[in-house]
Amino acid sequence: MNDLQTLFKGVVADPPPPSEIPSQAVFARIRKVRRRRAAGGAVLATAAVAAVVAIAGNLNSTNSQPPVLAPPPVVQLPVGAVSIEMVPTVVGKVGKMAVTMRGTVRVPLSGGDYLPTDNSFIDMSTGFTATWGQGEPDGGDGGAISCEGSTKETTGAVTYHLDPHAYPKPGTYTVKFAVKFCGPTGDVTSTKSVQLVIK
Fold first, then answer.
1. pLDDT, tens digit, for every residue of 118-142?
2. What is the pTM of this model?
3. Angstrom distance (rounded) from CA 13 to CA 64
4. Which UniProt keywords apply (predicted)?
């Protein structure tokens, strides 16, 4: 009976105080774990801020719309100057060229009268020349017309097909086109050139 009471008291009694202070190695491990947790939290916070900044940098308004690119500015040509577009075609060793001209010009006069503006826009030209990079140039003049004294303007466009040109051998040739229209002070020359590859 006495042995049973002694065993029971040993179970319910308070544990004895520690015989020594925990080693510094235990505290060092605890501090290391805390530093790792703090560093991990800082990395996560930095990554979250960077993500927010990156997202915000891609937005240009409160509506979160993508950036809008403005169209290129339209170049306004002076009266008498025309824009020229040249579209080449090659069939064998024969080169062909479609030339599109557009712009605002003064209407030339013939015998003191303005030319009718309901004619083709090419009729407003006082002349053109075309060189194929080989051989004789092509061209034409406007006849008995003049820019002198013209104050009337017209806006138009036309696609003109040059006469085909036969090349004697393969090569890369530069085709040049020049056309004259009336401006405020007389003839205005506009030019354009493209390369033609003959195989």
1. 989 999 999 999 999 999 999 998 8
2. 0.63
3. 69
4. Membrane, Transmembrane, Transmembrane helix
